[in-house]
Amino acid sequence: MIRIAVLASGGGTNLQALLDACAAGRVDGRVAVVLSNVPGAGALDRARAAGAAVELLPSRGVADREAYDRAVLERLRPHAPDLVCLAGWMRLLGPAFLAAHGPLPSTRGCPRVMNVHPALLPAFPGLHVQQAALDYGARFSGCTVHFVDAGTDTGPVIVQAVVPVLQDDDARALAARILVQEHRIYPQAVQWFAEGRLSLEGRRVRVAGAAAAEGALVQPAS
Amino acid sequence: MIRIAVLASGGGTNLQALLDACAAGRVDGRVAVVLSNVPGAGALDRARAAGAAVELLPSRGVADREAYDRAVLERLRPHAPDLVCLAGWMRLLGPAFLAAHGPLPSTRGCPRVMNVHPALLPAFPGLHVQQAALDYGARFSGCTVHFVDAGTDTGPVIVQAVVPVLQDDDARALAARILVQEHRIYPQAVQWFAEGRLSLEGRRVRVAGAAAAEGALVQPAS
C-alpha cells in the first residue's frame, strides 16, 4: 500500500477519482494527505469527506517560489508520501521540490511526482488547452498522465487516452469528454506505480507485464 | 469530376491510394498529372501504370526556390488541376505556388493544396516524426490531412486518424501502422473536397453534412 499526497487547486474531481479507486481497491494505496493552495477549494471538502488529512497553504501573493515549495515539502513530510499526485494543481514546482521526490532504486528511475494534463501531449501544453485544440481544428484530443519535470507538461508520458473533437464542440463540452478519460487513466497510472511496474528508459516509460498495446495506453472510449 | 495533380518525391503509396480511390469511384475525380522532383521515383511508375500524365522536374542542386516553384506551376498548368495533392513531396512550396492555388469562391475559403503528414499534428511536425514520437514516449500517434500553407505542416486540419504506439515499436513498425491510415483518410479528404463539402472558418475546417463525430474524423482502427 503506497501513501499518496495529492496537490490540488480546484474542485478536485481527479482527486475524487483517486480516492474512489483507493477505496474500491483498484489502487493499492491510500491518499494520506491533500494539500491545496486555494482556500475553499472543493478538493479540501472531498479530502475531509474521505478522511484524508488536509493541509491549506495559500499561495496568493507569495512571490518567493522556493520558499513556498519548501513550505509544501514541510507540510507533506509528516505524511511520508511515496508518490505526489498533482490534480488540478496550478503552480509550477521548483527543482528543490522535484529533487526531494526524485527517482529511488525502488522506483526504477521513475520520479515520484505525477500530473494529469487534459491534452494529448506534446500537443497543447499549458493553459486553456481545450480552446487551443478547438482553435487549431484538431480532430482528436485527450489526456496524458506524466511524470513531472521542471518544464510545463514536458515530463515522461505514463499513459494517454484519446477522445474525438466533435464539430460543434465548445471548450466546455470537450473538457467534459476529456475529464471522463482523466478519471480512468490517472488511477491506472498510480496503480502501475504502486505495483512497481513502471520504469524509465530515456524518457520512455515502460509498463512491465503489459501486452504490446495493453496497459501502456488506454484506447479511446468510443 | 475534379482534376487532381499529385506532387510526389518517393515511392508513391499515397499516390496509389488516390489512384485506386479514383478508379473505384470513391473519389469523384481523376489524377490528371503526377509531378516528381526525383528521377526514378516509384511514384512515376505508378502514374504511368495508371495512365496519368507524368512530369519530371529534378530539384537536386536547384538553389532558386522561386524559379523552381514557377517551373512546377508551368508544368501543371496545361493539366488545369482543381486540386494539388502532396504525397511524400519533400520540398516546401513558396508563396507564389500557394497563391496560384489559393481559395476560390467555389472552394468556400479552402485553399487548393493538400498534404498528408504521418503524425497527429500539431504534435511532431517536420521530418523523422515516427522516431520523434517514439523518443517522446507518445502512446498514440496517427496522421493528418491538412491544407497547405507557408509553414511546415501548419495548415488547417481536414481529417486525422489515430493509431496506438506499441511498447516494442520501432520507427518502421509505427510508420507502417500509420501508413494504412494515411491511405484511408487522404482519399476521404479529397472526396469531401470534390463534393464541395469543405469550408474554412478561421483555421477550422468544417465538413458539411457530417454527423458530429462522423466524417469530420476517422476513428482509430482498433
Indicate the structural class of chain A: alpha/beta
The main β sheet of chain A shows up as:
7 strands, mixed
Give the class-level CATH name of the largest domain in chain A.
Answer: Alpha Beta
How many domain units of chain A?
A: 2
Largest interface: A-B, 37 and 38 residues
- Provide the low-confidence segments of chain A as ranges: none
Q: What is the helix fraction of residues of chain A, given as a range?
A: 25-40%
Determine Rg of chain A (CA atoms, Å).
17 Å
The tally of helices of chain A reads: 6
For this entry, give a set of tags.
homodimer; 222 residues; alpha/beta; Rossmann fold; 7-stranded mixed β-sheet; two-stranded antiparallel ribbon; globular
Question: Care to give the gist of this entry?
Answer:
Chain A is α/β, with parallel strands linked by helices. Chain A is 31% helix and 23% strand. Chain A has 2 domains: 1-101, Rossmann fold; 116-207, 3-Layer(aba) Sandwich (Rossmann fold).
Verbal overview:
The structure is a homodimer of 222-residue chains. Chain A starts with a strand and ends in a 15-residue tail after the last strand. Chain A folds into two domains: 1-101, Rossmann fold (3-Layer(aba) Sandwich); 116-207, 3-Layer(aba) Sandwich (Rossmann fold). In chain A, helix 1 runs parallel beside helix 6 (171-194). In chain A, strand 2, helix 2 (42-49) and strand 3 (53-56) form a beta-alpha-beta unit. Chain A has helices spanning 13-23, 42-49, 65-76, 95-100, 129-136, 171-194; strands at 2-8, 29-36, 53-56, 83-86, 113-117, 140-147, 157-164, 198-201, 204-207. Chain A has six helices and nine strands; from the N terminus they run E-H-E-H-E-H-E-H-E-H-E-E-H-E-E. By secondary structure, chain A is of the alpha/beta class. Chain A is globular. In chain A, the strands form two sheets. A seven-stranded mixed β-sheet of chain A has the order 3-2-1-4-5-6-7, sandwiched between helices. The A-B interface holds A 120-124, 134-140, 142, 156-157, 159-160, 162, 164-168, 202-207, 210, 212-213, 216-217, 219-220, 222 and B 120-124, 134-140, 142, 156-157, 159-160, 162, 164-168, 202-207, 210, 212-213, 216-220, 222.
